[in-house]
Design brief:
The complex is a heterodimer. Helix content of chain A is about 0%, strand content about 55%. Chain A is built from no helices and 11 strands. In chain A, the strands form 2 sheets. In chain A, strands 2, 4, 5, 9, 10 and 11 form a 6-stranded mixed β-sheet that branches. Chain A is globular and about 40 Å long. Chain B contains no helices and 11 strands. In chain B, strands 2, 4, 5, 6, 9, 10 and 11 form a 7-stranded mixed β-sheet that branches. Classes of the chains: A mainly beta, B mainly beta. Chains A and B meet through strand 5, strand 9 and strand 10 of A and strand 5, strand 9 and strand 10 of B.
Chain lengths: ~110, ~110
């Protein structure tokens, strides 16, 4: 069974701190990696995509990918209470048109 | 910004009834998907659709489920005879290309009573 694993949390950080969210995946042939944010009762919202090893920055968000370790992470700098949500790691396993597989998500709580 | 539209937002149905969930994907997207999320659980893949046919389906997508793209814009999910365990949020998604991130609709909350 090919899996995407995340710590379910909750992860609590104070406002202004860096939140670090982690994800591992089992399919070594995976090519595409995504972070989605999901507020309670709402649909997943794409916040970052990463396809090659290293870091990718977009505003306060940085995604990090290490294919050798099969590890993806998301850093949120200057965390705000509005960042409080569940963060879903998602992977397209293998290459080509295979469907997105989600982890269970990590619940982040930013304390004002 | 283009969006995926889903209707209805909430549907209550009796066990054994048929339901049709509707989606309008983003117009230039080529790949369409249905996912579901049971309350408190992870987002699960149901089916993908490309070039007017199913390209992949999960174990959840059994003979009770079907999908259709009847008119080139709508994308529907039909559940023939609903069960209590079909109660979930159903999300439609589309992508321009299979390896790109998906855009999700706002979801249909299906409650089977």
């Amino acid at each position: 069974q090919k899996e995407v694993e995340q710590n379910s949390g909750p992860l609590s950080v104070p406002e202004g701190a860096i939140a670090s969210l982690n994800c591992t995946y089992s399919d070594r042939g995976s090519q595409s990696f995504f972070w989605y944010r999901q507020y309670s009762g709402k649909s997943p919202e794409l916040i970052m995509s990463i396809y090659s090893n290293g870091d990718k920055e977009d505003g306060r968000f940085t995604a990090q990918l290490n294919k050798a370790s099969q590890y993806v992470s998301l850093l949120i700098r200057d965390s705000q209470p509005s960042d409080s949500a569940t963060y879903l790691c998602a992977v397209i396993q293998g290459s080509g048109n295979t469907p997105l597989v989600f982890g269970k998500g990590t619940r982040l709580s930013v304390i004002a | 910004e283009p969006e995926v539209t889903q209707t209805p937002s909430h549907q209550v149905t009796q066990m054994g009834q048929e339901v049709i969930l509707r989606c309008v994907p983003i117009s230039n997207h080529l790949y369409f998907y249905w996912y579901r999320q049971i309350l408190g659980q992870k987002v699960e893949f149901l089916v993908s659709f490309y070039n007017n046919e199913i390209s992949e389906k999960s174990e959840i997508f059994d003979d009770q489920f079907s999908v259709e793209r009847p008119d080139g814009s709508n994308f529907t999910l039909k559940i023939r005879s609903t069960k209590l365990e079909d109660s979930a949020m159903y999300f439609c998604a589309s992508s321009e290309w299979g390896t790109y991130g998906y855009t999700f609709g706002s979801g249909t909350r299906l409650t089977v009573v």
